[in-house]
Each structure stands twice: as C-alpha cells, then as structure tokens.
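Hi support team,

I submitted a single chain yesterday and got back a structure, but I'm not sure I'm reading the token output correctly. Could someone confirm the output below corresponds to the sequence I sent? I've pasted both exactly as they appear in my results page.

Thanks,
R.
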Amino acid sequence: MFPDVRLRHHPFDDSPDPQPRDLMTAWTAAEAVARDMRRGRRVLVSCRLGRNRSGLVAALALHLVTGESGAAALALVRERRIDDVGVHALSNRAFQRLLRSLPAA
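Hi R., thanks for writing in. Yes, this is the structure output for that exact sequence:
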C-alpha cells in the first residue's frame, strides 16, 4: 500500500535518569533517521506523546545532518514542537543536558 514507507522501531525509556542502553538506542534511531534524510527521504519520528523520545531522536538527527550544535538542534525542536496547552518538546532535563553537550561539527 505504501511501498516507500519504512517503519523502524527503537524503543527506549525517557526517565529522568536514562541508562546508557537507552541513550545508545536513541543514537541508533537518530543515525537511521539521518541516513534517510541524507537520501532525501521524508521522515516521521514519533513516540507515545511526541515530546521527549521523539524530540531527542529528531534533535540528534538534525545535529548529525546539519552539523549544528546539539543546543541549536534542541532549540529548533522545542520551537517547532509545542502542544495545545503550551508544553514544549524535550522537557526531559537529561536529554537536554545530552544535547547541550554536543558541539557543532
């Protein structure tokens, strides 16, 4: 029905104290998204609420593709993803710290 659609499933926890395996899963998902973006494919990144896990993967992929700092990717995702009640994506402080630690390429 959708021949060009690829579904990838990369489950990980979005706790305030993420385990190394969860962060590795986020990086693996972001690398897959970045590969698709570089090939000109459109990519939808989603999680249950669309706030933290998907925001982290999207921001990491932007960092990988654009070479911008993680802080710049964080700011862009938070600017673009705000819900109807005013909650921004990436409210998880551990994910914010990870992104802010990534320098521009």
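A quick pointer for reading it: The mean pLDDT is 91. Let us know if anything else looks off.

Best,
Support desk
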